[in-house]
User: What shape does this take?
Amino acid sequence: MSVSPLGQRLCALLDADRVVDDLRRYFGLGPASSAASFTGRRFEFLGGGGDRPECADRITAEDLVAVQTLSVTVPAPVALDILEGPLGVRLSWLLQAIPRNKDMAEAEVPDLAPGSPADRAWHLLRDQPDVGWVIAGKIMARKRPRLLPVYDRVVRCAVGRPPSFWLGLHAALREDGGALHHQLLELRQVAGLPDTVSALRVADVVVWMGHRAKDHDCPR
Assistant: This one.
């Protein structure tokens, strides 16, 4: 079975010698860690996680703080609309239709395709004033960390611009019997990360740390 260009690029990045050390350093584990270095290590853990059952279908103030650990800030008027206004109601209705306990590798194309609840929620966020695709993607990744990836300028710089990153990554994770997905889970185990760090987040951190180390001019 042929491997897609995105799958080939991710496999190459995951095979780098520094990958396990990068994961441990980012998440503050072991002698190579620096507790103050990467606030993003708290992204999925803050407040118990954005996908815990009691708040999985609404965006909370904790979620808005969590995305700040990835160096973005939701504009105050949009944040208030999410927390107290009709925007939050619309997003909650869409979140109820997005699978919570499903890895991207286990998902079906309709879960991620244009017009799906996930896609509609992303577009709704993206189109808010001063939000855009990066912030929208990070909010969605906080709410569905197993299903939806972080995709920002660093990741785009590292892996390119497929017509749909979600669908391209979904295909790559399912190629060759899910080899890429299983490799991400193995890296998580070897690095000593908890199961609450999703395979998608392992991929994001590996790509970001590796690309950042090469001094590319594509800020987080």
